[in-house]
């Protein structure tokens, strides 16, 4: 491995191991942010990946994220352990548990809260990811989906669950708006697999639990392995067992501005969204949460920069 984390194997693009960094989320939760990063802002339309836990929340509040707004994106919540109660301004009230999918599509605007129920399991562990919406979808009405059962298969000690998109013969019922993939891979000790990948997709892998060898690179929790595009296979093995999450998609070519909880196309759109959250317009009201909504942070005095998927300013 070179000093920049890149590994090139014969006939394959270089993979890059990107370390995450810790970010406080609310009063009680710290997450490991894996996307966006300076070297890699997106993988397909995936523009944001936070990994949390495993955290001991026995006798503690657990996750407590007050009502806050979103626009221009989808949120994907995936749990390994624990429970999260979702409320939103559409009136949705849904508890998510491990191996289930909460998919919230903000469209033009939605608000939601996320909290551990008063009686909750002792561990909290999972992912929250964002998907950037393309132009034709980002102005549509908001919606919420809960999928308690997702397609999965167990082959040679590897259980594959497709969360969004399709992999092999498995297709998720979740509705997305660009060619996309999100899948959990649970490897038993000693398991190995060769994943068939789409050459027109780019991919990344993270570990939720355990260590795995991915084409000669060791992957452990806390980092994101960018596999690049042009691949048709990924060879994965784990001696002690591992739980991995695969993200992928067709490269997203629309330029974006990301600030706070908004994904937009210009500085002006971000400022308008912030103003409308502060004034109580556009995003609706989350009812039933025992606390105040999150105020928006102050905007920078300079214009927010529009960037392409590589991080280049436009």
UniProtKB/TrEMBL annotation:
<dbReference type="InterPro" id="IPR011051">
    <property type="entry name" value="RmlC_Cupin_sf"/>
</dbReference>
<protein>
    <recommendedName>
        <fullName>Pirin</fullName>
    </recommendedName>
</protein>
<feature type="domain" description="Pirin N-terminal">
    <location>
        <begin position="31"/>
        <end position="131"/>
    </location>
</feature>
<keyword id="KW-0408">Iron</keyword>
<dbReference type="Pfam" id="PF02678">
    <property type="entry name" value="Pirin"/>
</dbReference>
<feature type="binding site">
    <location>
        <position position="70"/>
    </location>
    <ligand>
        <name>Fe cation</name>
    </ligand>
</feature>
<dbReference type="InterPro" id="IPR003829">
    <property type="entry name" value="Pirin_N_dom"/>
</dbReference>
<keyword id="KW-0479">Metal-binding</keyword>
<dbReference type="InterPro" id="IPR012093">
    <property type="entry name" value="Pirin"/>
</dbReference>
<feature type="binding site">
    <location>
        <position position="68"/>
    </location>
    <ligand>
        <name>Fe cation</name>
    </ligand>
</feature>
<dbReference type="InterPro" id="IPR014710">
    <property type="entry name" value="RmlC-like_jellyroll"/>
</dbReference>
<dbReference type="InterPro" id="IPR008778">
    <property type="entry name" value="Pirin_C_dom"/>
</dbReference>
<dbReference type="GO" id="GO:0046872">
    <property type="term" value="F:metal ion binding"/>
</dbReference>
<comment type="similarity">
    <text>Belongs to the pirin family.</text>
</comment>
<feature type="domain" description="Pirin C-terminal">
    <location>
        <begin position="184"/>
        <end position="282"/>
    </location>
</feature>
<dbReference type="Pfam" id="PF05726">
    <property type="entry name" value="Pirin_C"/>
</dbReference>
<feature type="binding site">
    <location>
        <position position="114"/>
    </location>
    <ligand>
        <name>Fe cation</name>
    </ligand>
</feature>
<feature type="binding site">
    <location>
        <position position="112"/>
    </location>
    <ligand>
        <name>Fe cation</name>
    </ligand>
</feature>
